[in-house]
Design goal:
This protein is an alpha+beta fold. The chain has a domain of about 70 residues: Alpha-Beta Plaits. Helices cover about 30% and strands about 20% of the residues.
Length: about 130
């Protein structure tokens, strides 16, 4: 009888623990996560330049604030504020055509720069296709 009571108590505790974990995951928290893959910060782009010394000329050419919002470590990767009315995807596309820019993209929420996979090495093909 005592063993059955212990087993019942253990089952009740296990079920309560599972229930509390499930209920806890349903509680809405602060909005910290992107709601979709393409959510980005309005008015910002992230750009990696081939040379840090090109920052002033690139920002002047593309209506970007010459003072970066942030820099990723010591690498020439910058969060840049858009000064005109262009959308971040349009501004990033324009920047990407510049030979001084290695890549540019909107400042996607909850992603690192180049956070979205562009190609898959598992896809096969020739090296010059990448």
């Amino acid at each position: 009888m005592m063993k059955q009571m212990q087993q019942l108590g253990t089952r009740i505790i296990a079920h309560l623990l599972i229930l509390s974990l499930l209920c806890g995951s349903m509680v809405p928290g602060r909005l910290l996560y992107a709601q979709a893959v393409d959510d980005y910060v309005a008015g910002e782009v992230v750009a990696k330049l081939l040379q840090a010394g090109d920052l002033a000329s690139v920002t002047a050419a593309y209506a970007l604030d010459p003072t970066p919002i942030a820099q990723f470590g010591t690498r020439p990767i910058y969060r840049l504020r858009i000064l005109d009315q262009a959308t971040p995807p349009d501004k990033a596309a324009a920047l990407a055509t510049d030979s001084r820019v290695q890549y540019a993209e909107p400042n996607f929420l909850e992603q690192t720069p180049e956070g979205q996979q562009r190609t898959s090495w598992a896809a096969g093909g020739e090296a010059d296709e990448y």
